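Quick board copy: two proteins, each given as sequence then tokens.
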Amino acid sequence: MDVDAVWSFSSNPLSTLIEAEAAANLKRTWVNHGRARNWIGAEGEGRTFLAQATEVKTVWVPYGE
């Protein structure tokens, strides 16, 4: 429960298991379901990687009356 997110680039059965287990506490996952990924090329450092590696949160602070 202390883990915030899981990235796994492994077989399809393991990716499916990770997603199923992470659903209990809405843990973020990024899995590839057994598909190959080129970590050295543009795919490894592109917008998809950046989107999975960051999370933007906003805070609303009421003030005044």
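And the next:
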Amino acid sequence: MIMLQPQPLTRERFAPYGEVIETLVDRATAMNAANFDRFNDLGTAETDGTGRVAISIVRCRIATSLPYRFDMVERHALGSQAFVPLTPCRFVVVVAPPEESVEAADLRAFVTNGRQGVNYRRGTWHMPLIAFEAGQEFLVIDRAGDAPDCDEHSLEEAVTVAEAW
């Protein structure tokens, strides 16, 4: 069995898989007579041209706890997929490069700081979203369209995500 120890999520560590969505002071510009800070271009919504960008909200119905064992990952080859928590919460993401196939040894785990979101690049393999509290909501920005866009892959061996904090 493979045990993944989540590392703190940073833009540099997550770059091969997508973008970290967070409000950093050095990226702020003023708007509305300087009543607000605006954090521009935090991620790029990608589609293959056959779909459209959709904005949705998901709410956790069943909380997950660590350690967490899984044996399936998924990817979206036709578009990117972003998850941004609507209230502060830490969550764990597990990813692998956007290759044709994936093995458990390719997986990397990250834990957010409670204020970060992620945007998976097209084709990035990832564990399905989990949350540690029922009712936790996430803004989702991804591709919608007539063509299905979720490839699932069963791993040959189960993977466990260790306690992250």
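Board note added afterward: The mean pLDDT is 95.
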